[in-house]
């Protein structure tokens, strides 16, 4: 074993450095999320692709999922069917999903049509909302409860998101 480590020392060092760097990059995201949860959600007013204007504070009384995403983000593409399903199932129970992107409407329009996104997509081209929430990576899902407080703030793919949101909206996991 000792000889193996000597022979492959450079590989072990590079692997260790890479692993350390990856962990270092993820830790601030989790620290930021824990600081946001339980706080009042920063308000924003943004226009959607369909021309409607959404102001977060006007959605009080509903559970709002703010999904920060980008067209080039593979995990974001994985979340789209989950968000579409949630929107279809829980829209009448007081759930609002806003897909929030910093890309231009021109960049996003064909992507939205191709993926048949059935929830509003709002454009944050001046990064107002992204800066207010301290977004550091995609996807980031911020769930705002009916009182306007941040219930959860998750960066990265969350496979349990559907059940967590369903429980917040309906009070049941199923």
- Main structural class: alpha/beta
The outline comes out as: globular
Largest sheet: 5 strands, mixed
> Spans of 5+ residues with little confidence (pLDDT < 50)?
27-31
CATH fourth-tier homologous superfamily: Glutaredoxin
In the CATH hierarchy, the architecture is: 3-Layer(aba) Sandwich
CATH class categorisation: Alpha Beta
**What are the secondary-structure elements, in order, as H or E?**
HHEEEHEHEHEEH
Helix segment tally: 6
Cα(first) to Cα(last) distance is: 51 Å
- Cα radius of gyration in angstroms: 19 Å
Task: Assign the CATH topology.
Answer: Glutaredoxin
Mean pLDDT across all residues, rounded?
88
- What number of domains? 1
Organism: Leptonema illini DSM 21528
GO molecular function: antioxidant activity; oxidoreductase activity
Keywords: Redox-active center
Domain Thioredoxin: 35-174
Describe this structure in words.
- The chain has 174 residues and is α/β, with parallel strands linked by helices.
- The chain has one domain: Glutaredoxin, CATH 3.40.30.
- Helix content is 44%, strand content 20%.
- The protein is built from 6 helices and 7 strands, in the order ααβββαβαβαββα.
- Strands 5-4-3-6-7 form a 5-stranded mixed sheet.
- A hairpin with a 5-residue loop joins strand 1 and strand 2.
- Helix 3 packs parallel to helix 6.
- The longest helix has 28 residues.
- It is globular.
- About 3% of the residues have low confidence.
Short characterization:
The protein is of the alpha/beta class and 174 residues long.
